[in-house]
C-alpha cells in the first residue's frame, strides 16, 4: 500500500476495490446551471440599471464578509477540516454565513470537497476532480455540470454533522436562505441593494470560487509536493487578501488539517488573523498548525533556502506568536 493510500485511512471517503474515481461522465446539471446563470444575469443586467456607490459598497462588504467568516472559517476550516474548536453557536453562525456564499448546503459542500480532496491524492483521477481540462471547458463543467462516477465511493460523514438538525435544515433550504436577506435589503435600499447585495454577491462568490480553484490546481508556486498524488496544490501569492488566505492551496494540500494556511510571515492569511483575534477573546481554541498534525511520509519540501528557514519557524510558533 502506498503512502498516499495510508493517508486515506481516516478520510470520510471510503473507496472499495470496486470503486473508481477516474471513470465517469460529466453531465449538465439544470439546477446548478440555472442558479449560477440566473444570479449572474440578474447581477449584470440589474447591476447596470441600479449601480450606485452605496450598492457597490454593500456588494464589497457583504462579499468579503461571507467569504471570510462563512467560506474560509465556517465551511472550510471548521466544518470540513475541524482545524479549530469553538462554541456550537459560533460554529452555526459561521457555517450559516458559508451558506450565503451560494455554493451549496453545508452537507453537500462537505461531500463535494471531500470527494475532490480524496481523488486528488490518488495517482490518477477524473479531469473534473483535478481541474484537468482547458480553462474554458473547466469553467463550463464546474459552473454548469456535475460528475457522475460509474463506480462512486461511499462518503461517511460523522454523526455530529450528518445528524445535526440545523445543518440538515440548511441543506434542504440553502438556496432559500438568500430570500430573507433579499427582503431586508429591499426594505433598506430597494432593488439596487437586492441586486448588488444578493445576486452580484452570489455570482461573484461562485465564479471566484471556481476561478481560484482552477489556478490553485494548475498555476502557481509550490512549497511542498505530495508524492504519488494526481494533483499538486499551488499558491497564488497575489490573491491572499481577496481569498481570505485560501489562495495558499499548496500549503493546504500539504497540511489540510491546519487552521493556518499562510505558513510564512510574508504569506498573508486574513482567516488566520481573525482566528487569532477570536482566540484572544476566548471564543476559539485548539488552533491546529502543521506542527500539531501527524507526519506525512509522502510529503516532500520544494522550498527555496530562505523559505525553508521561514516555514519551520512559523510551524513552531504558538497561535498568537505566529503573526508578526
UniProtKB/TrEMBL annotation:
Claim: Membrane is one of the keywords in the record: yes
Family: Belongs to the fatty acid desaturase type 2 family.
Compartments in which it is found: Membrane
Organism in which the protein naturally occurs: Pseudomarimonas arenosa
Residues of the Fatty acid desaturase domain: 56-257
Record-given protein name: Acyl-CoA desaturase
Region ranges (Disordered): 305-324
Swiss-Prot/TrEMBL keywords: Fatty acid biosynthesis, Fatty acid metabolism, Iron, Lipid biosynthesis, Lipid metabolism, Membrane, Oxidoreductase, Transmembrane, Transmembrane helix
Membrane topology, from the record: Multi-pass membrane protein
Protein origin, superkingdom: Bacteria
GO molecular function: oxidoreductase activity, acting on paired donors, with oxidation of a pair of donors resulting in the reduction of molecular oxygen to two molecules of water
Amino acid at each position: 500500500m502506498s503512502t498516499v493510500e495510508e493517508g486515506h485511512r481516516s478520510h470520510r471517503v471510503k473507496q472499495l476495490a470496486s470503486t473508481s474515481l477516474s471513470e465517469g461522465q460529466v453531465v449538465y446539471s439544470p439546477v446548478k446551471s440555472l442558479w449560477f446563470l440566473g444570479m449572474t444575469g440578474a447581477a449584470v443586467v440589474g447591476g447596470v440599471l441600479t449601480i450606485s456607490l452605496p450598492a457597490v459598497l454593500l456588494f464589497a462588504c457583504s462579499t468579503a464578509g461571507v467569504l471570510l467568516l462563512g467560506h474560509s472559517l465556517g465551511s472550510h476550516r471548521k466544518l470540513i477540516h475541524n482545524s479549530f474548536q469553538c462554541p456550537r453557536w459560533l460554529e452555526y453562525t459561521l457555517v450559516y454565513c458559508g451558506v450565503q456564499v451560494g455554493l451549496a448546503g453545508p452537507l453537500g459542500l462537505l461531500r463535494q470537497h471531500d470527494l475532490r480532496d480524496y481523488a486528488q491524492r490518488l495517482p490518477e483521477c477524473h479531469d473534473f476532480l483535478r481541474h484537468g481540462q482547458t480553462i474554458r471547458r473547466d469553467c463550463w463543467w464546474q459552473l454548469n455540470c456535475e460528475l457522475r462516477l460509474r463506480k462512486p465511493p461511499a462518503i461517511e460523514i460523522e454523526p455530529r454533522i450528518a445528524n445535526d438538525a440545523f445543518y440538515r435544515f440548511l441543506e434542504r433550504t440553502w438556496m432559500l436562505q438568500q430570500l430573507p436577506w433579499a427582503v431586508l435589503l429591499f426594505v433598506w435600499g430597494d432593488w439596487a441593494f437586492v441586486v448588488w447585495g444578493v445576486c452580484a454577491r452570489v455570482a461573484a462568490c461562485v465564479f471566484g470560487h471556481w476561478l481560484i480553484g482552477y489556478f490553485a490546481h494548475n498555476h502557481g508556486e509550490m512549497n511542498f509536493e505530495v508524492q504519488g498524488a494526481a494533483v499538486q496544490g499551488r499558491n497564488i501569492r497575489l490573491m491572499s487578501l481577496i481569498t481570505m488566505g485560501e489562495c495558499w492551496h499548496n500549503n493546504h494540500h500539504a497540511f489540510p488539517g491546519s487552521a493556518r494556511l499562510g505558513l510564512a510571515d510574508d504569506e498573508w492569511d486574513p482567516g488566520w488573523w481573525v482566528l487569532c483575534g477570536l482566540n484572544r477573546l476566548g471564543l476559539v481554541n485548539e488552533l491546529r498548525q502543521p506542527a500539531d498534525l501527524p507526519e506525512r511520509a509522502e510529503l516532500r519540501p520544494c522550498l527555496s533556502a530562505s523559505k525553508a528557514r521561514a516555514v519551520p519557524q512559523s510551524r513552531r510558533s504558538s497561535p498568537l506568536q505566529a503573526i508578526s
